[in-house]
User: Which sequence fits this backbone?
């Protein structure tokens, strides 16, 4: 069974059987896989589009982040569509799950090409939707953004990044791995360094040459210490203000390793001294409210290393739902 | 061996052998099981009474919370009676462990009846004591409060609840499960909705209809976000102020799932974005100081899912000892 | 969405999306949920019928065996339909997954009634099929057999049991728990003690009174030591020979706790000194080949306690596929 | 509370509360701690005496084997007194739990002296009982045997050892650690090398010089490969035959590291290629039947490294109960 | 620091500091990394050569098998050089650790080329040595054998494989992944199907088309059931006999997934019903004694999924040392 | 291989192989073991000296803290030398790893003497360096400080302690265990009680008599609640101000059990309600900046109980690097 819309995207591997009474209150009852859609036009109206990007063989360290898209979908059963904090019901939005980019086992370049193509196809079709990529490792960000650029070449793209690392490693060392996405985008001319904003850097997890490269290219960053002193919300707002004066579209990338290792047992690259869950959720909510934010991704979450209770998978899903909340609050405010 | 006082309550399954020199400095050397008491009258003077309520087959999801009362007692060896923060020694209080409510393997209704009866018996005997129920899942709260009501039908009861959920599910769906205790109390007329205060709701863990039911019944609640903004202590004080103007007795129920999943690996229903340990302990201490608070419970902690170091079991015991601290601080202040 | 055939059975909670090319080589591509069937008559031709029985709140100890039916279905992706040992392809058989018996959260009696009804309905419809119940705890066996009896009251039923325990506890103590199924069947007159054969008893895991009860009722048993001395295959054949001379239909029940604890980390009641995996698979294969064996179950496997690699869930599925292999070998031999 | 009999032995830290009806069918209802005994003479009639020896700071590698005596006692609740394999009820024997040898935190020599003294006291009092020491690490064996020798200096002692290692390391290197007990006994003249029999050596876990020392001293050993070829039971019988012609008393020491690492996750020194559970239980049963076997120990089991299900702790307890079974079978055969 | 001999092979990442007294009794004191060698000629005399092959991004499922070479070296401290079973000391052999094949993060083809080159270089230099490759996933086997062929093109190569799978998947699907090494070798003409012998196939872990391909190409195989019936040793001897009549050189590949999942928690692809440790070690020892066996590998062991005690890593090292034992026994027998 | 400088200190057990190009950016490429140094005079210029103190058999509870020095060195590969928060590169400092104090398996007194001697030797040689001891349990602190005192008898020493406990237990109970270091120093006259400052006490983890002893001896302490109210940084500054007016040298001891149990799974004595990672790092940084701080230790971290991702080991290393950062910031400020 292939999706009618995207023959080059694999549909999700399974479908939740829907409740007979038609009442939906849990996320898995609400978000529809593309294989459940019968009317292409209806599909095109989705306000949010999900794309799974199950690639982690491009990671420097052995990673099972490729398993997150499936774990993400399975975790939906643990979440209501109703957001109590803001008294809104996400199920009033239409969200479409297009499935996963197909991957090749031994040809990573091919995997990356597939991601660019899938991203371009979806950004081409869904010009008014938010596109959420569920990684996968951080190498996918460069590919998702390139696809976005391919679909809308005239739009200047800016990036807001929550991350413990710059991800500016030299691609000539080991190709487009998970340590390189930001450099990849700079060197390919898709995003200028000065249009990148990183929040969350800290500790002993970046080499000096990366910082120097960042400075040369004008990459903007707030260390976690600086962001805490200023306030996470205020820091995010400043980044968005600056960005929106310079670009047409903003892409949010959430590298889950920005979290403290106590909060993210399922993120092997998370470190001591990182963000708390509350700080990350506060930041993501604020970003999502900005009208220029058109796409986002969640990367580097490895369910194979998670706790039995799947604490980190649930947190990844919470980040996604928080993003949707911000989007909906904006819409409501706009109306 | 049965207790002389409560033939229908099983004594704790084991007794700590006491130190020869009679010096007690650890909690397990201090709290006496009812089987170690020879004088019923002496027992009746206990300032605090413990009742284990090892029921979790009434949980919606598979739960081992029934194992908490035993794990709770075993953990006592890790705690001193001396509280350094407040420079008081809890061993100056008398605490009686009456044992566990007997449970039936396949008749949950019978289990619930046993809890009501045990609660009524203890509340009837110990009119000036604090009664602490150690769950078990949250279904026991409705039963403990009904027993309290049965013992003192003329007293109006209010509830302060730390919880991620409303626990207002419809009993007609699946009976008095762990999702229903508050609704159970409202529908049975034992506690009015307007006399319930919930602190800690957040995220995507309650469906919209439950919120609507809460509003209809006048249930009061502070989301975790609101409570943090106002301050946990201040929020608790406001709840207590309002409650004490309306009721005679206050019951505190601590659903451990109010905690962030990073702090409570042994609480399967805990979620990302919940309370920190410091916040919960701050709240419980403040509640315990209020003179109208007569009873409390700790529920939904599943030792079978805890870490090897029993991090969550220890946290549950810490909540209990913090409650006792508040009680003792009040007494000292009153004298 | 409800199944057209069995409105009182919940369909499986999810469906695997099938491969576009229609080639099926993995178990999840082969076994169809009832919701994927459009022709009731076609469904009725299934050679094997699966019924999930997600009940474990009737367990004496806290258990998550209720999660096994879902874990069982998820594990299908790890198994080919082709059996190399015997050079047969299971996909030549038709297997129908009818879904799960609906359970009530707080009324265990109702759960048990639902199982009896579902079993009777299926045994009534599928008179030439093998019926495989996926537990759940061992209390379900009594209910499945009662349903079988209800559907075919004139048939004498015998039981072959792989188990570390007699499961002959007195129901007057705690109702029809997981310790009672065999006694339940004897006392209700559905199966005579002399038509029960237990293989695998060993060690210190049965009290003396149970052994005495077994002897009084003529229950047959081989301890694991005896079975090893004689040979597992030979022991099974002797049981089947004796049984087939006395009954019309044989029910196989596999309590996974018959396995040594080293082989079954996900079975909390497994013990040191139990069966090896190889021994159990050898036994099950032999049973399945017997033409009078009409139904089987797999019980007491708790996925929540399994290893990360789901070693025990996979073993449970292997037991099921081994049973199907025996059935198919018999058919082939008969033709 | 100290025991009236052995003021220098700490009573068990806790007591199980006994069933009111006096019916005992589980091990914890049967084995009495010394603190529950009121008549010293009655205590003296115990057929089996248990002594906990919670010392593991003498281990070469960091070990929590000191926690086994308590874990052993807690595990009793999982075992019936009735042995189905042999149709005997252990509760017909009288077993006395004298508690634990007191240990010093920083003076290991003192710990060892305490063990010698406790062993001598108990062997002096209980001349017709079997003495079971529950370790602790293997250094305790030398001390238990020395105490035995002190109580009965004229008796020649032989040792049967199940072990992956010789435990013949040179004490001048690091004192009487867990690698030295057999050499300690040879060098102190308490047991002759030729009266030691080791079953289970295998693989790459002993250095050559230890083998040479063993040969010089005439220590007897069967590698696991040799024992398997000959049969475990036959090997044990040959050892016992030879030993009983040379000594008055036989001491059995079970180093749990003789087990394959797959069977003993809670024994850090267990290795690939070791014994299966079935083999060890078969061996222990045979040893226990021999009338000259007067004492035994179980060592090097670290509950802190065990699985959540406490697979290895349960196995250790099973070894103990199997030993008792052998003793009882002998008695029955003698009568 | 690069090795003087193999500039294209990375030296091991660390060196054990050697004991001052020069006495070596543990494996880590004996096996020298190439960086510790000062005389190239001396290096060339090594009887055994180790090559780490840390590649697992070519695995179909997410794998950390790339971490095994380092874990393997770290585990050496747990093993003596003395083999008690056979009374030989491995340290009389000279073993050289040449380090690890360098890998590229995103170019798997390049990784594979590097392996072929490294293998060719080493086989070219060490014509009388045994070459042991430490994987990595099973894709490396095709590359190691190709390198061997490149170094000695005139020699016919045969393969003895312990495996649960055929590893004959079609490379046109996903390139030279870990599912394809045997087909890769057949299709590239390096090894004929009839010169491949697989021992250990079982269960539901191979699709039918693979079996058909195997039969077409004349691949020989014994299922585990067949091998057990015949005896592991006898099966191995028969394979070796047949092979040695057809080829000049035999390559042994040990896919650790041949083991039962209870014995190999650190091998994600291991399955219920596989080999026991004792069976595998018996088989490997027998293979190693054959004079035509010139090279071997150990693959698919993922230390990131191993138990805390590193049970599977230790087992992998035990397989290696057992191989060396066979080699040494042969040499001794030849002299 | 022994170090030329300290024949009584064991060199680290392994050496990292250095990168060929000589560029060092990771901690393991920077910090040199003493065995890699050829010029003793060069060694003497080290600004920071590391001494491993692998002793934990002196712990009251079974502990594997002896494994931390090795785990600490292995973790270096996960850390860059560049500190982004403060834009400094630690590799501009010279750091020397002298190895580990040799320990005796069964003579704890000898272990302690070895520590005192090693500390005295190093403090004697490195008068201008910071000395960092990597424990081990907290008993080592008394020995390190005694060695420091022995090397410089005329200097008054003060102690700043991050700890959940007083560590003032009576040595007459169980010798110099991990519960006694502060009392040991007071009673031996090496440090006066009034020159000790403890930050982090909280909860129910100290008995009343210890508090009384602390008060008698004038030990200063801020509970965690007090420190939080005042601010961690401010609290530390006040302690340092007071201390520097009274002593010549300040010793920092970080007992990792000061952390909340959610942040320190690898510290068995950590408790609910402790410090967050952010708080501890803030405190350590501030201490390190003070010129009188000459030595520090990190104790009670047990890698055997850590998570698979080694969250706590990494945190311990982060504490060490944060200390170095403070030292370097001070130097830079001074220049």
Assistant:
């Amino acid at each position: 069974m292939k999706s009618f819309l995207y023959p080059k995207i694999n549909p999700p591997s399974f479908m939740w059987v829907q409740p007979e009474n038609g009442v939906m209150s849990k996320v898995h009852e609400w978000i529809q896989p593309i294989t459940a859609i019968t009317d292409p036009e209806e599909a095109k109206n989705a306000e949010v589009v999900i794309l799974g990007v199950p690639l982690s063989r491009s990671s420097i360290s052995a990673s099972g982040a490729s398993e997150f898209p499936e774990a993400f979908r399975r975790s939906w059963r643990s979440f209501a569509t109703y957001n109590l904090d803001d008294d809104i019901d996400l199920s009033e939005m239409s969200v479409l799950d297009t499935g996963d980019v197909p991957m090749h086992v031994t040809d990573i370049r091919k995997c990356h090409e597939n991601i660019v193509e899938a991203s371009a196809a979806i950004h081409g079709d869904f010009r008014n939707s938010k596109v959420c990529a569920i990684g996968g490792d951080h190498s996918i960000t460069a590919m998702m953004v390139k696809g976005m650029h391919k679909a809308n070449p005239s739009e200047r793209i800016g990036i807001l990044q929550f991350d413990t690392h710059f991800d500016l490693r030299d691609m000539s060392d080991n190709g487009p791995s998970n340590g390189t996405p930001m450099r990849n985008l700079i060197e390919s001319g898709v995003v200028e360094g000065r249009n990148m904003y990183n929040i969350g850097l800290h500790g002993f997890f970046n080499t000096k040459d990366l910082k120097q490269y960042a400075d040369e290219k004008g990459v903007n960053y707030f260390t976690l210490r600086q962001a805490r002193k200023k306030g996470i919300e205020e820091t995010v707002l400043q980044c968005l203000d600056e960005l929106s004066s310079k670009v047409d579209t903003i892409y949010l990338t959430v590298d889950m390793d920005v979290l403290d290792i106590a909060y993210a047992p399922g993120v092997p690259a998370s470190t001591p001294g990182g963000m708390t869950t509350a700080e990350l959720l506060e930041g993501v909510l604020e970003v999502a409210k900005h009208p220029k934010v058109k796409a986002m991704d969640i990367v580097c979450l490895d369910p194979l290393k998670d706790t039995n209770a799947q604490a980190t998978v649930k947190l990844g899903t919470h980040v996604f739902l928080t993003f949707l909340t911000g989007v909906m609050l904006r819409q409501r405010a706009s109306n």
Observations:
- The mean pLDDT of chain D is 95.
